[in-house]
Amino acid sequence: MKIRSFRLKLILSYVFVILVSFGFVGIFLDKNLEKNSLRNIETSLINQAKLIENQIFPESIRKEDAPYLEKLARVSSLKTKCRITIIDTRGKVLADSEKSQEDMENHLNRPEVQAALKGGIGSDTRYSSTLKIDMLYVALPLKDKNTTIGVLRLALTLEGVQKTLLAIRKTVLLGLLFALGFAFVLGSVLASRATRPINKMIQVSRKFSEGDFSRRIIQSSQDEIGELAVTLNKMAQDIENKIKEIENQSQKLAAIFNSMIEGVIVIDKSGRIISMNPTIEKIFGVSKGDVEGAVFLEAIRNNDIAEVIDAVLKKGNSLSVEITLIYPIRKIFEVSAVPIFDSGAIAGCLVAIHDITEIRKLETVRKDFVANVSHELKTPLTSIKGFVETLLEGALDDKENNRNFLKIIQEHAERLNSLVEDLLSLSHLESKEVALDKKNFNLRQQLEGIISGFKSQLKKKNIEIKNELPSGISVSADRGRIEQVFTNLIDNATKFNKENGAIRVYAEELNGKIKVFVEDSGIGIPEKDIPRIFERFYRVDKARSRELGGTGLGLSIVKHIVELHGGMVGVESIEGFGSKFWFILPRA
């Protein structure tokens, strides 16, 4: 079983050190005490044997005087408390203090006896099968004139030594147990002191793991734990700073991501949507929360974009295509997809969807504009060229027709001049560089002056015009530009009106602004043409418009002038029942 508590490990380490130390000391002490005890006993037995040796006569050994030797053995045994055995050189026991001679076996093979017969002092410790106890044997050679004639052996039981060693072992064991208990208590105290700052670090570190990096570890010690506390505090500060930096960057990226005009979708390698910005939600009418995690084609049913994503995820190459979205509204998009790599492998792709509907529309308008300008210029130029060539070929001398030809050339030249002037005026207005000379003036009075300039045109078609603007109506605007607005609107209302028709100009209050209406009883505008009526060169009836001398730029100029004043223009019309053009200006 693994020990998970550092405090317990520390306590057990103290206990283990004491246990091992006492174990080594106890074993060393036990061995040395036993060895020294045996050595001392052996020395004592040798000294006693030498004393007894002096009482043994060589003749008693040679003659095997058993009574004398047995008596000597028993008396000496009582004095020395040892077992005494006298043995001849053949190993025969001549006398023994414990048993009779007849009961003793031959001792020639005893190690101590062999050592003594060789002239030395022999000793051995072994279990005595006779007395059933461990014995220490010491044997000395018995000599007669340097000739060994027998062996004197003394034996002493080790029961006392064993009892003494046992008592010492018990004492050592009790000391070990006391030391272990003391080590456990002392280890607990020291471990508590050592682990207290560690526990504090653990608590604060848990707060770090929960994202709270405001906490700090207070540790005044200068040891390794103090250094660890300083390191953890510095780490927390660094992480907190990094997180703040990452959060700031993330907020900036999120702000950029969410405010992008282009729609952006992030796809993972399995084709699922990871994220998208609000533009995508608006384009496809989906909710970010509903589609995140879903397969692209399930969330946004557009096969063209799905094929682009699939190609990028498979090949790992950037891809850009132009697609047309039919539903919910018709729009043109440029779809660009780039792969996202992670460690060299494709991890997903980033899809950017840019709405180029207006760009394509502007390109179409530009093409139409060039075509219309070319056509508008070509018609009068062709006529002028044709009549000039006619005059040069001889018609100049034709007094009946040459003036008519020149008048036609003059009319086309004036038409060209009007067209160029209108184009320059429109270009100037569209540049937004027009400096308006705004002043407060009476709109009704201005309209009266403009109407007087149309008297001849109105009279030709017998058209009645009514100025129903209030007498006190005033606006804050550029007088010259507003005159141009009225002129163009009344000119159109006159040209496209019916014989014996009527024109009515009136106004109404609208949230602090003036909404002016120019209403006619003319031919009206088809419903399909109303959305494009303010475009350059757009004509409802092209043939009649040119016949009436229009350039096709009048209403476009009106729109730009009013918008420069911060206003709006519009038209209401029913084909065959006249038109009602209106514009809004700020009130003075």
Describe the overall structure.
The relative contact order is 0.05. Strand 3 and strand 4 (133-144) form a beta hairpin. The chain has five domains: 7-164, Beta-Lactamase (2-Layer Sandwich), CATH 3.30.450.20; 219-259; 260-355, 2-Layer Sandwich (Beta-Lactamase); 360-428, Helix Hairpins; 434-586, 2-Layer Sandwich (Heat Shock Protein 90), CATH 3.30.565.10. Residues 543-549 have low confidence and may be disordered. The strands form four sheets. It has a five-stranded antiparallel β-sheet, sandwiched between helices. The protein has 588 residues and is α+β, with helices and mostly antiparallel strands. The radius of gyration is 64 Å and the shape is rod-shaped. The chain is built from 17 helices and 17 strands.
> Kindly state the mean pLDDT as a whole number?
80
Q: How many beta-strand elements?
A: 17
Total number of domains = 5
Strand order of the largest sheet: 2-1-5-4-3
Identify the CATH architecture of the largest domain: 2-Layer Sandwich
CATH topology grouping of the largest domain: Beta-Lactamase
Compute the gyration radius: what is it? Answer: 64 Å
Give the CATH H-level superfamily of the largest domain. PAS domain
Largest sheet: 5 strands, antiparallel
The total of helices stands at 17
- Enumerate the spans where pLDDT stays under 50 for 5 or more consecutive residues: 543-549
What is the global morphology?
rod-shaped
CATH top level class name of the largest domain: Alpha Beta
Helix and strand content put the structural class at: alpha+beta
Span between N and C termini? 94 Å
Beta percentage is 15-25%
Helix content: 40-55%
What is the subunit arrangement here?
A: single chain
